[in-house]
Amino acid sequence: MKKYTDTGKKDTRSGFGAGLAELGKTNENVVALCADLTGSLKMDEFKANHPERFFQVGIAEANMIGMAAGMTIGGKIPFTGTFANFSTGRVYDQIRQSVAYSGKNVKICASHAGLTLGEDGATHQILEDIGLMKMLPGMTVINTCDFNQTKAATIAIAEHDGPVYLRFGRPKVANFTPEDQKFEIGKAVQLTEGNDVTIVATGHLVWEALLAAEELEAKGISAEVINIHTIKPLDDEAILASVAKTGCLVTAEEHNFLGGLGESVARVLAENKPVPQEFIATKDTFGESGTPAQLMEKYGLNANAIKNAAEKVIKRK
Amino acid sequence: MPHNTQQLEDFVTQVRRDILRQVHKVNSGHPGGSLGCAEFFVALYQEVMEYSTDFTMDGLNEDLFFLSNGHISPVFYSVLARSGFFPVEELATFRHIDSRLQGHPTTHEGLPGVRIASGSLGQGMSVAIGAAEAKKLNKDSHIVYSLHGDGELQEGQNWEAIMYAAGHKVDNLIATVDLNGQQIDGSTDDVLPMGNVKDKFLAFGWEVLEIEKGNNIVEIIKGLEEAKALTGKEKPVCVLLKTVMGNGVDFMMHTHAWHGKAPNDEQLATGLEQNPETLGDY
Fold it and tell me: Rounded to two decimals, what is the model's pTM?
């Protein structure tokens, strides 16, 4: 099985900051808007280098989304930055009407998604954002797995004409994807080859899936791990090609199982090739305060949980 | 382009007919606010704004207009069509299936003249501010205009936007509020009293200009020209346009009853009689 090395733990939000800083230099149409979380979103470098293209809107997310929609009229490519909760649920109607329905080229960049936000608790730990965003016609939904991939995705979405939701997180996690990767929206990345079970993971759970695959390998089970960084449009072909081989599948995400990656995958399977599926996701619950590791353990979102789900789903074949 | 007052008033009369006929045909839509703003739209598109009917979404080097209270689409569509953005015959498709003239304005079907979807209230000022900021970045000295209902100011997003525009000196924006004092459930004072709207904008740091006779096209043009002269001075400009809902059709005036209700055949005939054909019906 192909092995991956953690080159040093980094937060995905810093990958966003690095990508945005790069875009500042290379694309003069890129503008950034932030709702009083510049440091948390790692937008400081862009702000320092391009003050004229940085818009501090204050704690006023609805106005931020509307302004971003307006700035596309005149050719700007706005990147909005705030926590995932305030990027989606708080401004759903603004995104729906002024951005998605209006077809505006706005990049909604959302940090601190999911349980790994940690100690702040459930008010801030949104686990419904992927569902909210993927239901909007025309919205691209991306959830990156590490620093390098988040940086690459940030740069790539500037070239995509249309609204994008880019989801990333707060904690420092393994950085294992190539520094020089080319990010292709909607194109799944197969990380390991396997014949017994497919593990389709997104975001922080991609690394956990790789750890699970190693443990499974030690038990003589070969797992095919696929990094689905783009939840919409979903790479149906990659999923179907893999389950044609393995005959069963585990989906893994830091999100509610209602409305998340798992349900999107289940639809593809139901329409094409139904196979047993297990869902690693939160099960219709809010989060709570705790360290990221404690929360991921308690809510069953780590390598161990993925390994157990894989063993279970293989038995269901 | 019409220039004398009679020509402008004739234009308005035709727009009133278009409004009544659009909503009557589909037995739905919002005639009251549309009629109240007919003079404003004609003033804006026939006299005040600089624009090209060769429509581009970016609207570089031209004035832009955003309608925030999208339910008054009948007046917007009539004036856009009669200003040359699309054929007037298309007004006959208002609210029909497969039409570009959706119940509320949208970019989705590519109708020339529309740059944002509106209808869910309270979003247009933020969009207008964004477009105004983009103009500044593009070194484009043209003005962004917007229109808002007075009841619409009850939506909180407006006040985020109003605070931003003053705080960040968005001085290439003229936001007009249609002060007709009515909303769906009754008078604005009965539904949710808003106090003194002028004082509120002043307190937020805006320039405020009042047009007392908001259904007098000469007064509107004069007021909007004054508003233009106030741009570029580090403050956003608010125009308080005092209109009568349903203006020009006697039984629709001074009431919220016709906010979102279409006239029947008889009522249409009466309305059209009060507004004889001037530029030719579609």
Answer: 0.97
